[in-house]
Amino acid sequence: MSSRTTRSIAHYLMLSPFMLLFAVFFLYPIVSGLFYSFFEWNASQTSHFVGLANYTKVFTSRNFEKATWNLLIYVSITVPLGIFVALSLALLVDSFSGFWAKFFRSAFFIPVVMPLFLAATIWRWIYAPNFGLLNTILGWFGMPSVQFLNDTGTMLYAMIAVDVWVSAGFNMVIILAGLKNVPRHYYEAARLDGASTFQQVVHVTLPSIRPVLFFVITYGLISALQVFDVPWLLTGSSFAEYGGRANALLFPVMDMMGRGFGSVRFGQASAYGFMLTILIVCVTAVMFALRKKFGDA
Amino acid sequence: MSSLQISNAAKAYGAVPILDNINLDIASGEFVVFVGPSGCGKSTLLRMISGLEDITAGEMRLDDRVINHVDPAKRGIAMVFQSYALYPHLTVFENMAFSLTMARAPMAERKEKVERAAEILRLTHLLDRRPAQLSGGQKQRVAIGRAIVRQPKVFLFDEPLSNLDAELRVQMRAELIQLHQRLRATMIYVTHDQVEAMTLADKIVVLNGGRIQQVGRPLDLYDDPDNKFVAGFIGTPTMNFLSARVKDVAADHIVVSGLGGDTAAAGLVIPFAGFDPSIREIQLGIRPEHATIAIDPASAEGLAAKVTLVEELGDLTSVHTVLANGERLVAQNHGRRHSGAIETVVRIAADKALVFDMAGQRLRPAKA
Questions:
Q1: Among A296, A154, A281, which residue's Cα sits nearest to residue A218?
Q2: Based on the number of CB atoms within 10 Å of its own CB, is B233 exposed (0-12), middle (13-18) or buried (19 or more)?
Q3: Quick one: B47 and B189 in the same domain?
Q4: Could you state, in order of their start, the residue ranges of all structural domains in chain A?
Q5: Do you find a cis peptide bond into B218, omega within 30 degrees of 0?
């Protein structure tokens, strides 16, 4: 056996623990998910092949239409708003130094480390119809009480606010790391060239942190497409009751979980999951292509 | 072209003084170089002129207008940074036009000014490139071009050549001199490299410990330094300093002894009119070119020395020696190679020796 072959075997042996775990916990579920998406299976009876029927049923269901529509609105608001808030916080923290920089950085990061259940509870109290904080404040100005988590016109936006609040700190820390890497003399040169603070942000800061922004946007999109926990906790939090009033907070992952663990239709849930995976892979591929074209500073 | 006056300027960070009692007049069209060791405050002074650093005390006037609190962009000053500060996402054209873009100048004006500056700096063929596609020298020229486009009253350069290799540095130095001659603009340049200072400056400002040590033309500082620091900082190899005892004081000369620990020697006669006879201990400053290795050490008169290092530079040989009392002395042989001898004799041109008191201040002969 040549020394090269021996070396290759050694390399593969060293990689094998990871490959094994990857195969068991990633490849197998994906492949079996794809397999079950062509079968009708309720986990107790024998499955039988149904072709593309599961896909057709998912596609033509009203819940799918509602969940997709909710997701579209949610993604198109949450991702840009979340990035804008995180960027604003990062710029604010970056403008401070010493104690106040540490204080604000820690303060804005608290929602990230807080258990989501606790965050949802706090926000359910803030949104509560009678004694909630927001309605109390609205009451001070003589405005009528709003059913933030019951009115189908406000539910989605109330949930987006919670989601942005929860995720902004994480994105802020990543953007802040990017800001710290922008050479200070870029700003000094811009100051001497007459750039206002706003012009410095637009012409110096944003282009300089483009790779970081691409990462945050891509990660934000992937997370947003899989949204589940926040609307789940703000609504029924059970497979018997989820999605909120008139399904205003129904999203694809929630619908998929409901079909699987609520209605015990694992074939449909698998088809749902596989379609979602394809969508996320496509969005990620587009983001990577865009990054290749525009992202390198 | 503009003149700059700095009066009693000072800078402190909290209780830590950085610069103190800075007084300086820079005439219109002058090329002034701030030189000094790291941490002497030269870059801080430049940044105070630019407005990037506040002035703790004193006053700065540009064309008789006090600019202490004027916004950096409104001072009419352009600065070239050590690291060029070129924006990597913009092309050369966009980098050079940055100030005009910020001022929302019409595209025709941007194009005209950038193309004119690019022509001066031979950058026309590079206008569409990004900084990453440029060499160090080209980046440096773009940074200068960005300053030219602003048509400033004063150009500031903060160690602009320190990132370039030795050969390119010499080339860029020549280009800067030509640029200054062409633009006739007031330029202030910061460097820690005294060769750069000597070759570029109309006027050198030597700084140390946050204070101006001496201001003058390059050769004036070389020939007639005010103190040991300036004498030692200007010139390569650095000036030799030997402690000596004043043995005899006459009207037009002094006789010193004990040079290099040689107590047996008769003494060295140094022309010096009006020497203060109360001073007994002095230091002599001797440039390496004024100390030579004797061809025949056995019969020559001078200071006995032991050779520790020989630097052969072709036309010039620097011989590093140590004297009997441990003081070091560098001698130079012009057009002559060192014989290889370890024990040697160094001859000193006494009429070229500079006299310093023990505090390091220069003692000058009385004028006739």
A1: A281
A2: buried
A3: yes
A4: 63-257
A5: no
pLDDT value, residue B168 = 85
Task: Kindly state whether residues B343 and B202 are assigned to the same domain.
Answer: no
SS3 at position B77: strand
Please name the helix (run of DSSP H) or strand (run of DSSP E) that holds residue A108, with its range, or none: helix A99-113
**Residues B144, B251 within the same domain:** no
What are the E-state strand segments in chain A?
Answer: 39-40, 48-49
Chain B residues closer than 8 Å to A196 by CB = 102
Rounded to two decimals, the pTM is 0.83
The answer to whether B98 faces chain A, any CB pair under 8 Å, is yes
Using DSSP's 3-state secondary structure scheme, residue A21 falls into helix
Phi, psi of B156 (to 5 degrees): -115, 135
Do B209 and B251 reside in the same domain of the chain? no
Name the residue facing A193 among B51, B52, B102 (closest C-beta).
Answer: B102
Whole-angstrom Cα distance, residue A137 to residue A145? 10
Pick the CATH number of A63-257 from 3.40.630.40, 1.10.3720.10, 1.20.1050.10, 3.30.2130.30: 1.10.3720.10
Question: Mapped to the 3 state alphabet, what secondary structure does B252-284 carry?
Answer: CEEEEECHHHCCCCCCEEEECCCCCCCCCEEEE
CB pairs under 8 A between A and B: 60
Tokens 């998912």 sit at which residue? Answer: A58
Closest CA of chain A from B102, distance in Å: 6
| Domain total of chain B | 2
CB under 8 Å to A157, separation ≥6 — which residues?
A77
| A234-242 CB contacts, 8 Å cutoff, 24+ apart | A234/A120, A234/A123, A234/A124, A234/A149, A234/A158, A234/A159, A234/A162, A235/A149
Angle at A122 between CA A117 and CA A125, to 5 degrees: 125
> Is A188's CB within 8 Å of B85's CB?
yes
Give the pLDDT of chain B (368 residues) as one tens digit per residue: 689 999 999 999 989 999 999 999 999 999 999 999 999 999 999 999 999 999 999 999 999 899 999 999 999 999 999 999 999 999 999 999 999 999 999 999 999 999 999 998 889 999 999 999 999 889 999 999 999 999 999 999 999 988 888 888 888 899 899 999 988 999 999 999 988 999 999 999 999 999 999 999 999 999 999 999 999 999 989 999 999 999 999 999 999 988 887 766 668 899 999 999 999 999 999 999 999 988 776 666 788 899 999 998 888 899 999 998 899 999 998 877 777 778 888 999 999 999 999 999 999 998 76
List the single residue in A185, A191, A208 with the smallest CB-CB distance to B72: A191
Residue-wise pLDDT for A113-148, tens only, equals 899 989 999 999 999 988 899 999 999 998 988 999
d(CA A14, CA A100): 47
Q: Which residue of B has its CA nearest to A195?
A: B102
A230-278: pLDDT as tens digits: 999 888 778 878 888 889 999 999 999 999 988 889 999 999 999 999 9
Q: Quick one: tokens of B124?
A: 């026309």
Pick from A187, A185, A74, A246: which is nearest to B83 by CA?
A185
Contact B307, B268 (CB under 8 A): no
Number of other CB atoms surrounding residue A173 within 10 Å = 17
Positive or negative CA dihedral for A90, A94, A95, A100? positive
H or E segment to which residue B35 belongs: strand B31-35
